[in-house]
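CO-FOLDING WORKSHEET

Operator: S.A.
Ligand of interest: flavin-adenine dinucleotide
Run index: 293
Mode: holo prediction, single chain
Checklist:
[x] sequence pasted
[x] SMILES validated
[ ] output reviewed
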Amino acid sequence: MYNFRNYYEAKTIDEAIFKLSENPDLKIVAGGTDILIKMHGGKLEKIDLLSIHNIASLKNIKKLEDGTINIGPLATFSQIANDPLIAKSIPVLAEASLSMGGPQIRNVATIGGNICNGATSADSASTLFALNAKLKLKSLKDERIIPIEEFYLGPGKVDLRPSEMLVAILIDQKDYKGYSGKYIKFSMRNAMDIATLGVSVLCKVKDNLMEDLRIGLGVAAPTPIRCHEAEEYARNKEVTTETIKEIGKLAVKPTKARTSWRASKEYREHLVEELTGRALKSAILRAGGVEIA
Ligand SMILES: Cc1cc2nc3c(=O)[nH]c(=O)nc-3n(C[C@H](O)[C@H](O)[C@H](O)COP(=O)(O)OP(=O)(O)OC[C@H]3O[C@@H](n4cnc5c(N)ncnc54)[C@H](O)[C@@H]3O)c2cc1C
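OUTPUT RECEIVED:
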């Protein structure tokens, strides 16, 4: 059933990092909602586990002096959905967090685990892509900060080096201030389902001009992706039905959707075009812009 050899529990980041340096094969457990399923299914056997669940400092969500929002990787989805700083500064992340799992899962599942698991369907990922989030990764000898777009290497594969741990998710003030957003999760049912497609849109609109646009997609490719061509096209364009249509079309270009039992490639592409437009219309309204038919 749960076939592991040893279980360690770290109380501080330093302790966790030291343990990882002694044994790079240690498998980190945060909330356990992904890893325990894999262990139960026999995909991970005879492993040594390192629980970081009780490292209090990794649960904090705070604003740094320069305005950067620092989200601890152990922040749970319930915590993020109810956090006043997130509600004020990046409500689209609260929206994405609430779309995830059910209340019981949201109470335990962490945002760090969601990212480090490497799934394209991770409900926080497309929004973090759209927010230009950066990840702080720490090991005993090194600390690096990389854009989330570079962290995803393939399905279930992320750029976590041996003995490294995710210690912070960082969102620069310039990447959230003045932006409005919308996350749409398309799934076969509203509760407790993995996304067939996830679309997160962030835009800055002034006098009916699109000053900036960022689009993050989940399940449109083997990893979450950004739609850079659509974003470039949108910059400084007037907000009209036609521009939004074109943005939806361009958003399909970087996708590498596949057919699975959930949906065909063609259907997912249709969803990208349609839901990008819908999310954008909603974000524009939230930005105080006009209603687009
Ligand atoms: C019933 C159910 C419903 C679900 N519904 C959804 C859903 O709707 N949307 C969705 O996106 N997901 C869903 N999930 C998947 C899962 O809950 C999430 O991916 C969750 O965020 C994982 O977080 P965790 O803390 O439980 O991760 P864990 O299982 O503890 O860890 C996941 C992976 O990340 C690694 N890891 C964790 N933290 C760190 C860190 N700080 N540094 C380095 N590596 C780390 C672990 O070693 C492991 O490989 C669901 C799961 C279940 C069981």
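REVIEW:
The domain at 56-174 is CATH 3.30.465.10 (Uridine Diphospho-n-acetylenolpyruvylglucosamine Reductase; domain 3).
The longest strand covers residues 197-206.
[x] output reviewed
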